[in-house]
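Figure 2 data, in text form.
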Amino acid sequence: MQSLSQILPAGPANLPISQIETLLLPRLADISLKLIGAILLWFVGRWVIGFINRALLRGLLSRAMDATLRTWITSIVTIGLNIFLIIAILNIFGIETTSLAALVAAGGLAIGAAWSGLLSNFAAGVFLILFKPFRVGDVVAVAGISGTVVEVTMFATTLNTADNVRTTIGNNAVSTSIIQNFSANPYRAVDLRVQLAASIAPDEAKAVARAALSGIANILADPSPVTEILEFAEAGPRLVVRPFCHNDHYWQVAYEAQMAIATAFVDAGFPQPSVSLASKPN
């Protein structure tokens, strides 16, 4: 069997195999060493980044920093360290990082134009971090969704609704909507509307409603519950019954107050309000 040196004759257009080997082997060895070095640098760098993130997270937790701000800081540090790691790996192969930076900048403009919605969510996330209209754990209503704030990331806000549905909303939709924070104040009102029959004396009904509320746990004494006539309807006076409680007890107070008032009205012998039905045209 003929060797490669016998098949390819030496000449001006062809180099001897020995000379090709002399030229290629050092390059292959150099590339192999660089590849091994890049792989080692990648794994060591990732370990160092993980170590720095864990140390940073422990430091932020010891300072009792807001969970949202803590997530942002660790995310930004992770992204920055990974960028430096990639640049260091490229330097091993002798790639000019200055030209690469210009290429990345040009690509960033193109991506920014294509992902304008994503960038608007990022900008809105910065707004939420700086002005803090709510924090993790607060009960809020944003973009038409009510729930408990689970997480605020760079691009989206996650809520758990009252029926235990995990809901993720883009930060731009959050920042441009009306934000209601039910946890910002130390207590909130539970608004109940009670329709009375026309034959019931409002003062008697108010007294029965107040007595019914007195047996419910977690209703605040200060401010005291409000029981007043809200308006006059066709069926009779309509009361507003408004006990106050901490946000954590809102639904417990709301459910128990309605049951207690309904039971008290039945025990007092109050008649049901009459409801007039409009006649249908023939």
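Caption note: The chain has three domains: 20-114, 134-181, 188-267.
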